[in-house]
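DM from R.C. (forwarded with permission)

"hey, sorry to bug you on a friday — could you get me a structure for this? deadline for the figure draft is monday and I only need the backbone to look sensible"
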Amino acid sequence: MVCNSAGTLSIVAGTPEAALPGANVGVYTLEPEPPSIPANSIILAEIWVPAGATSITGAEIYDKRVSIADFLTHKDAATGVHGVGASTVCSETEADNKITTHAHLSINEQTGASYTLVLGDDGKLIDMNSAAAQTLTVPTNASVAFLAGTQILVRQKGAGQVTVSPAGGVTLEGAGNEFKTRVQHSMVGLMKVATDTWVMFGDTAV
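My reply, with the result:
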C-alpha cells in the first residue's frame, strides 16, 4: 500500500491484493491536511508540494519568520518576510499627528492692539510687540480646534503690557487669577487641558 505526494493511495498488486475482496483493490485519492500547530509554537516555514512532485525546491518554501526588531504585521511581496518596517511605523504615526516635535520654536510677532490665536500657533512663541497695551484672545474649541495638550508661549516684547483674555465659553485658569504679563520681556505659557479649558503660567501679574 503506497501513498504518494499527491495524496493518492494505491494497493500494489501481489499477495495483499489476492487476500482482499476485488472491490477493495484499486486507487483511492485522499485530501491531505496540514498538521495542527501545537500550543506555544510558532511557524517558521510553509512548504507547498505540487502534485506528483519527487523533490522540493526553494520556490516551494515560504518563510514565515517574523522579525521583531524591524517588522510587525504584513508580508513584504519582494522579500517574503512578514512585517512592517520600523521606519514605516514612525512615518505613518507622525503623519497621523501622533508624534509632533517642536525642537525649534517658530516666532509669530504681533504689533497690533489685539490678536486671536490660530491653529498654526500650536508650539509657537507669540511675540507681542507694542508700546501700548495689547490683548491676546484664546478662542473657543468650536472656532479653533486646538488639540488637548497644545502649548503656546507668549512674550511681552514691547513696553505694552499683554492681557490674555478667554473668549466667551473658554475657561482660563492660573495661579492667583493673574492673566497679564508682569513687565517687558516677561514670558508666559498657555496649555490646553480640556475642550475649552486652558491654563496660564509663567511671569504673570494681575
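R.C.: lifesaver. The chain has a mean pLDDT of 81.
me: no worries. The radius of gyration is 36 Å.
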